[in-house]
Amino acid sequence: MTTLVHADGVTKRFGAFAAVEDMSLDVHPGEIVGLLGSNGAGKTTLLRVLLGLEAADVGHVEVFGDPPADADRHALGYVPQGLGLSQALSVRQNVDFVAAAFSVRHAPALPTTLAAVADQPVGRIGLGRQRQLAFYCALLHSPRLLVLDEPTSGVDPLARARLWDTIHAQAEAGAGVLVTTHYMQEAEQCDRLVIMSRGRGVARGAVGDITATSRTAVVHTEEWSAAFAALDEAGLPVTLAGRTSRVAGTAPERVRAALDADGVPADVEEEAATLEETMVLIEQSSRHPGPR
Ligand SMILES: Nc1ncnc2c1ncn2[C@@H]1O[C@H](COP(=O)(O)OP(=O)(O)OP(=O)(O)O)[C@@H](O)[C@H]1O
Description:
The protein is α/β, with parallel strands linked by helices and 292 residues long. Helices cover 32% and strands 27% of the residues.
């Protein structure tokens, strides 16, 4: 299979600090690869190395089979976190600028939401529309690879769903997509995930592979408030989902013991952890290696 991005053992340091350490990653046509990790994990830095905007200190990167600096820019669509739009230019002028840069003769019609503000400076339209415009511009030249850095951050749920429809359509048409996100609902839409913590790749695979080994103790009781308080007081990592307490990565026996100690009657079951719970457990075990 053609590989759009191939990164092998990439390390990027700023001074003595390694923002990315020994990261490897591939992106193939037609797949959506999600890059996850808490703030500062190194996602943006890795994207910038893959795009040739930062040079790797160690490791090997290829984009479309070439070093990033020589990669075919016409085959690449990039939406950076800051969107990369010219705030003082109008929507239409931004489009014309990108079309000229990529020699696009016939740009597709602007979506109606953008057409309605075509003559307004980008700085005056809302963030949702700005993101829509950044997407439109990134797709103008039909890229084979789409790199999206938190593309839906700060966007309302409906606009977010629309942007994800566009991402899926691109992948279905054969483009490879590499996307960073903090939203678990978005991560769950990716074909594969790569999870970073403190610069390193700490888990990878489909959502089901990543969550497969993590379990959560789930507490069912009428006395949900007392149950939560008892588990919290016992120092367990309890969260509330509605009126149900969940304790990820903790044996049900330990949870039951904490409830018994406070005399809270409850049924405790074990079930598969959610992706969010698994992410927290992965982050914890990468900070404090040892048995979970
Ligand atoms: N140019 C730079 N000089 C020094 N340190 C940097 C530079 N760029 C990034 N860093 C540091 O590298 C680390 C990784 O940053 P990066 O932006 O890649 O993380 P991230 O996973 O994308 O975070 P977020 O989810 O908040 O965007 C952070 O500690 C950041 O402060």
